[in-house]
Design a protein that fits this description.
This protein has helices at 39-53, 130-139; strands spanning 65-71, 74-82, 90-101, 106-112, 118-120. It is an alpha+beta fold and 147 residues long.
């Protein structure tokens, strides 16, 4: 299955593709991706995001799922829903982007506007622990991620 896909049982399915991808260009905001995320950090992030994705009740996973994928030094968190015309297809909408800085060893948070442009989330630049950044998305005090 491709990265970010949902397995038939509705659980998050993923592949850590953070390895490789040196210096590629991030087409969403023109930022260079630098070095990939260290393997130990990838494992921590995957464990936390799996738990986040599992918070969707099993009864509604055919209608809504949270999925994520690694792209260089970034992790995209998206919601996945059946296509409105063809329920055999799905649509994905990325709503949070986590950017890892290997020089600093910290995470920055981005949010997506209605046009798909990514913007810095104030106060969450170079946070040492991914857990803290994910908690901000979960709490969503500004209602920018979940409305």
């Amino acid at each position: 299955q491709p990265n970010g896909a949902v397995a038939p049982d509705g659980l998050c399915d993923h592949e850590a593709t953070a390895r490789g991808s040196f210096g590629t260009l991030d087409s969403t905001n023109g930022q260079s991706t630098e070095m990939p995320i260290p393997e130990l950090e990838v494992a921590r992030v995957m464990r936390l995001l799996d738990k986040f994705c599992d918070r969707v009740p099993v009864a509604v996973r055919s209608e809504l799922a949270y999925v994520y994928r690694f792209e260089g030094n970034t992790v995209l968190l998206s919601e996945r829903r059946p296509h409105y015309k063809d329920r055999t297809r799905h649509t994905e909408l990325a709503f949070a982007k986590f950017v890892y800085s290997p020089r600093i060893g910290g995470w920055s948070l981005r949010w997506s506007d209605r046009n798909g442009w990514w913007h810095r989330y104030d106060g969450f630049e170079n946070v040492p622990q991914f857990r803290e950044v994910l908690r901000e998305v979960e709490a969503d005090p500004t209602c920018i991620f979940f409305g």
